[in-house]
Amino acid sequence: MKASDLFVKSLENEGVEYIFAVPGEENLDLLQSIKNSSIRLILTRHEQGAGFMAATYGRLTGKPGVCMATLGPGATNLVTPAAFAQLGGMPLLLITGQKPIKKSKQARFQIIDVVDMMRPITKFTKSITHAHNIPSLVRESFRIAVTEKPGAVHLELPEDVARETSDEALFTPERIASAVASKSALQKAVEMIEAAKAPLVLIGAGANRKQNCEALANFIDHTGFYFFTTQMGKGVIDERHPHYLGTAALSSDDFLHQGIEQADLIINIGHDIIEKPPFFMKVGGKKVIHINYHPSEIDAVYFPQLNVVGDIFESVSMLSELLQPKERSSSTHFKEVKENVSKHLSKYLADTRFPMLPQRLVHLLRQNLNEQDVVSLDNGIYKLWFARNYPAYQHNTLLLDNALATMGAGLPSAMAVNLLYPERTSVAVVGDGGFMMNSQELETAVRLSLNLIVIILNDEAYGMIKWKQEDLGLDDFGLDYKNPDFVKYAESYGAKGYRATSDNHFQEILNSCLQSKGVQVIDLPVDYSLNHEILNVLIKQKQS
Q1: pLDDT tens digits, 250-278
Q2: pLDDT digits (tens, 9 = 90+) for 98-129
Q3: Residue after which a domain boundary falls, among 308, 343, 378
Q4: What is the CATH number of the domain that holds 317?
Q5: Do residues 69 and 50 touch, judged by C-beta distance below 8 A?
Q6: Apex CA 208: angle with CA 369 and CA 434, to 5°?
Q7: Counting C-beta atoms within 10 Å of the first and last residue's C-beta, which end of the chain has fewer, N or C?
Q8: Is 468 helix (H, G, I), strand (E, B) or coil?
Q9: Which CATH number is 109's domain given?
């Protein structure tokens, strides 16, 4: 069999449905093999678009998404999606082409060491030097990509190797289960929990796996513990739960931290040190139990006293069996914290000023979207408001990136959502800065006949950096720009464009978009002027 055919057969053997790609001439044999396969090629307008879509596929399904690019600049454009998946725990296979490695007539044209470039930002990277190695390397790549913590892997297929032949057989895919935590660790956890007066549960990014949702909900219901989440732990448990305190969108000083500070034990499930710490440990302070697939990494603000290492589903299920519910006086305090958080978060929900406050947008979207609908965020200051104010009712229905926190991923992520789940409403909420970094993917979305709502928060500036600039007392300098006419821009791609002029007008546009098909872009002026006022209130309350 031709090596490129063997490579694609190996991908089919792993259950690959899509390859997101910007092919180059070094990929042409592979492209021909894809044409003759069951795999659907999704042609994008930039390698970042392909990589972000593939990474989001991995995030949503738990199976590696696959993207492809050529050598040189094609490969370098996949660096950001590789880091996005690696830090965010999303299984992803990156495939790049290369000039012939055995006999080349083009000297060093476009050639860089892609394998070495990918090494710091992937779990595994390899150049395929012989067709016979293809089945084993593809199988190994998929195994590594999904093993906790999931992440990015990379294979380079040179064009001369792609044209070789091989009679190697395929390997049977096998998912390796995570180990189970030791009985001694679980028993020690039970002892620490029973001795605690005010235990509090934290759900982090590592717990955000579909198979963990039911076990975690049962654990909370059985024990009666209150819980909060990190940004990437949102939605693991329905956030309408009466014991949900909120999401830690800030490292400290938020209303939620009144509860965290009073806890004497944090049961930290799925903590990933990649995320900003939602609390800071001090020597002699509160105790922490770390429950995860792997041991904790120790740093100056996180050094748990107990590691319960193993499959999270199994660990939490066994703790539910071992623990007996009991009343604690701290429940009254946590209930008061919950009421206080809810009161502050609801303060601006009915504020109809225009340009629109981000809190108001969050409220309107939550009102109008169903439980299973998905909001995909790009990166900007509005991410803070969604993390704090948008209750997620199901797993992976608010997609945000609190790991690499890259701009440009919001639109491609929402496109992947609609491709996978056409029955759900898919909404991309993007800043004007992040949108323009991959706005060309509107053409891809229109060509694929996707149904998608894109809300562009327009403040004509890199708003989050301006917020930090002001916070540091620096001059307002160097961060403003002018945007194109987003309505005409959307229409030039064959999408529908709208510009909101008031709160009521936006609601009319949103309702119309929710009833319509196709790609629809809404230009929404946004008001970030209250960011500092609200944060100053938090800080003053903390100091008092």
Answers
A1: 766 778 888 888 899 999 999 988 887 78
A2: 999 887 766 677 889 999 999 999 999 999 99
A3: 343
A4: 3.40.50.1220
A5: yes
A6: 60
A7: C
A8: helix
A9: 3.40.50.970
